[in-house]
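INFO batch 0412 | record 1 of 1 | parsing
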Amino acid sequence: MSYCLGINTADGLVLASDSRTSAGADQVNTCQKMHQFVIPGDRVLVILTTGSLSLSQSIITLLRHDFDAGLGLAAVSSMYEAARVLGGMVRRISDLDRAALEKDNFRFNVHLVLGGQILGGPHELYMIYPQGNPLRSTPDSPFLQIGESKYGRPILDRGISHNSTNLYQAAKYALLSLDATMRSNATVGPPVDLLLYHRDTLQVSHYRRFYSHDVDLIEIHNAWEKAMRNAVHQLPDLSFDGGDVRSSDPCPDAAGWRELTAQG
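INFO prediction complete | emitting tokens
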């Protein structure tokens, strides 16, 4: 299992991913899931991948081959066109591998997140489904997740705003979202890749990889858990009616219902 996410703010983009590809009792495998396609001053495209590692590697390999030849992602003039290039590549790999996978009862499973900016256009964030169709983030839905998303979503729902969350705050939310996921699911784990893209710069200037022993990652984890406990302790005390739950009526209208039943 994997977990990757992108956050779109007015200031730019935050993209983050874990690196765990499998986790068993005696073996943990890791592989980077963040891939950069950059022409400084012209375009910055960042792709996150989850799902079958063999499928995502095939997709990235062919995208890189075209990019280095000045084709594909190197030639498109908008982020939407870039998302369509990714979708077309997903379909191409589907044509090559889907039948063989499904013959042996393996699902064709690959999801992508694409974030970036191309000269002359806005910074944008897309998710590409296994069928190849893209979904764009909006100010009302400013983040996109792929993989094991349920554990890391609540903090994003509560905290992220496209207009009022700045880029560095969004980076903290991304790390906390990944931390919550890693805390609850052992199949998601470090190293964690974190990239910040400032709009209109057309270059990557903020990137960091956090390993499990990273001092800053540990400090953020500990500080967040301490802050949550303190917040719970400061909540108003609950009031209770008292009494023995076994002798209380489980339904406020139970007496009336019993009377109607008896009359019937």
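INFO post-check: Residues 55 and 110 are 7 Å apart (CA to CA).
INFO record closed
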